[in-house]
Predict the 3D structure of the following.
Amino acid sequence: MRNPTLLTPLLSQSPTRDFCPHTPLNGENARTPILERPPHQSRVPSYIPDYDSIATKDNSSATFKPDRYRQSKGSWALRLAGLIGPMTSIKNFAGSKHKDKQFPFDQLTSTDWVHDSIVDAGRIKELKSGKGIESHLQIIFDKSQAWILCAVVGILTAFISVGVNMFEAPLFDWKFGLCANGYLFSEKKCCPIQAHCDDWKSWSTIIHSSSLSDVSVQFLAYMCITVLFAITACLLTLTTKTALPNTFPTFAPDVNLTLNPQLRSASYVGPLDPTIDQSGAPIEAMPYYAAAGSGIVEVRVRLSGFIFHGLLGFKTLAVKTLALILSVSSGLSLGKEGPFVHIAACVGNIVCGTFSKYDNDRKRREFLGAIASVGVAVTFGAPMSGILFGLEEISHFLPPETLFRTFFCCISSALTLKFLDQYGTQRIAMFEVRYYYGWEIFELFPFIVIGILGGATGAIFTKSFRVWNSSVRPSFLRNPLLEVFLVASVTGLVSFWNPFTKLPVSKLLYHLASPCDNTLSDDLGICPQTIDGLKSIIPVLAIAFLVKGLLTVITFSIKVPLGIYIPSMAIGSLEGRIIGHAMQLVVLRFPESPIFKVCAANTSRLTCITPGAYAFVAAGTTLCGVTRLSVTLTVILLELSGSLEHVLPISFAIIVAKWTADAIEPLSIYISDLSQELDRLHDESQGFCLMTNVPTNEVEMGLGFSPANLATYVDPVFLSTLQPAPITVDIRSPTNLVHECFMKLGPRYICFSREGDFAGMIHRTSFVTQIRKLAKKKQQ
């Protein structure tokens, strides 16, 4: 039951004049109405008998804890609640500030790196103030905590990766049949020597039907299992549903600081209430599913300083792992590389709660930035690529110490994979291709063409995704399960009839990128030995390219765990294989040309052209066009192929692909996805006038958790909570400088001065909102 009397004296105090950030207060007794707002919007405390009952951990799942408040016993906000009570002194509170445990509050609120740095510096100072052997041991243990946790995260993530691969392969093969020796045996494990054997039973041999042909039985089994796995994955994902902050009455001091005071009357209902729009109609909640999608965007947002409750909790980890197995096994056009970045971040967030040192949000974010990239290392089996991925994609700020921890974490995971030997080949890579022949100088031109086409394909894919997401997907926002059902049905219906599209995407990529070897069987027919065979395989590859591209566009946004890396590479490899075979036709068409004469005279193969190398390069260029990664992709392809001979064409093609993609579509798929998700958030231009550098999140939470037996009158003096030296820049500073301050220093807000006098302030979320508005105007 709420106590309506606690803040009544506060709310009744009116300012002597309208108060706005650029209007100074007149009068000796003028006061800043930082807490004045109408009763329907005011936060009044609930009766909570004991602080212990509300203690939670950072990023605990919002599904378990529906309450929007997140903090822990002994945190700074709770001591603030004690400060405004009658029994606590300001001196005691100020003296305990270095013991602060900074915990997040509302969804998508931002944390302050500067404040967290001060708090951590106080902790270190107190740690070093001790003397004796015990104090030195404590310092050594404090420094070793990060290394211990990095090793633990690398090992645990590797075990999870092996477990996912162990169950994914047999479940995927269930669409084609079962192994008589064990239901959890994949076809490859069931028939290790031959491609087909008697132990593997197809559905047409298990289910006998006089009215249906064998192909029809296989097709129905394929369809049913595809839809069943996809729907089950979606149902699991939907259990991580939570709501984004437009559904909560909350402080909004950082968006609209000049609201007219007359709108704050008790009878007014409108923009001040974030659950009601301008017309008075209730705003519908925006659902958010922590386990859905790739998770790379959300991890990046978390590392940039914004709070996502439930994003990195244990429930999200368990649900995403199980749902990922089912979604990949269903045969949908998706991968698991992006979700493993999210899974690694979840593992890191859970294990770092072991040490109180990481209750500090700055230290926690540094650690998460170091270990998130281990997801790429374990899925590709490429530890060096994981390190570069952390630099290029995940962390906007990665100091050398954190970079070295990333290196240690990726190596720990790689050693674990080597020890587990999940593929039985004593290798850790997802697959390896070896090219035994080099490339001719005239092939540089087709590699440039591959770069242009790959970059254009990736950019067009991003544009197509944005069109689909804005025009079709809104119809399924209320029923994501129906969207998954339809996408899975279309995928099964279209993929079954093409030998390339019904393969797992990783296996398809491996077959397309592999060189032709006469000693191995060619079940897919991608190594023709005649001109007629070349002409017949190109249309099949072209159809598979179009089908795979369209399926990936409609699949990327459904509510299951999914990644875009391997599907994009598979699309590009189909395109590259087509170009490779086309080059073979050109060489065979002009065998006497001075350029192609030596190549056409090759007797060991059809020509000197290696179509698999073209497919491999095109896989990297297409993924570059989708994600805009460059150095990371080059190293990934190098680690997968082990071919130093092809480093130059791979690197050059990726450079051309990035230039082409940037010219067609400035945004990568992740930035585009984030931009559209932000567009779904309702305008948060509701709030009350604020002119103070009191950390309002802490003030709000302190007042919200005040027990009901506090004094009926509270004097709003927060002297000890004021930040005496906020980050300040000149009001004439360019926007780029303000952006650099937010990115590198990490403050919650920045103040502006004009010739030494205060001129205004801007919050981080306000800055992001304004930049996005300017970007939209520029695009128009």
Confidence is low (pLDDT under 50) at residues 1-104, 246-274, 681-694, 705-714. The first strand starts at residue 177 and ends at 179.
